[in-house]
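cron nightly-structures :: item 1 of 1
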Amino acid sequence: MSQALLVAEPEERIGSFLVRHLADDGFEVVRAEDEETTLELVERARPDLVLLGSEVDVCRRLRVGEPGRSWDRAVPVIVLGEPQADAVDRVRAFDRGCDDYITRPFHYDELLARIRAVLRRAEPLHDEVLEAGDIVLDRRTRCVTVGGTFLSLPAKEYALLARLASAPTTVFTKDELLRDVWDFRSKGRTRTLDSHACRLRRRLAELTAMPYVINEWGVGYRLMLPVPQQPR
């Protein structure tokens, strides 16, 4: 199911640009040009995320709520700051409750990556502890153990393992993993995924004889799980 975004941007050129490209990337997009319309649409359309122009007081109003009005006060907000914005402007925006801040002029691909990252952080963790064979991954603490031994992983290797362990019998395509772990949207040749998968496999191999991270050639990666022993 596609996710809904509210683009609260008074400048016509930027607002139209964002609406068009975000829709092309699979989002349901609504547009607001002023503060009151923004609040009305947050209440009526219930977006999954708000892209907010530099009027950060809207963010404060969203977080505090208002008598007689009802909306999700935890809705993620990304502020699009003015070109002259400085560190004080960013701190004030975060103090008013924004989840991320990006200064104009921005690159669309970077903005899209930040949108997807904020949306992922906002998703509820249905399975806080993932288990795959000897691997136990606790998403609340980002703790990984293999056969009871703690394994320290860099951020991207942890994210890759968490994605694979979320559905241990599934083969994830390279495009899916590049999108979900690295926010890559365009298809192309890259060794990023293969390099991280290789390093992750080596780290696991120090603690278990099971290879776990399996390369399905021409498709992607999956986890190999131990075969249950048949009762005699």
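cron nightly-structures :: done
The longest strand covers residues 4-8.
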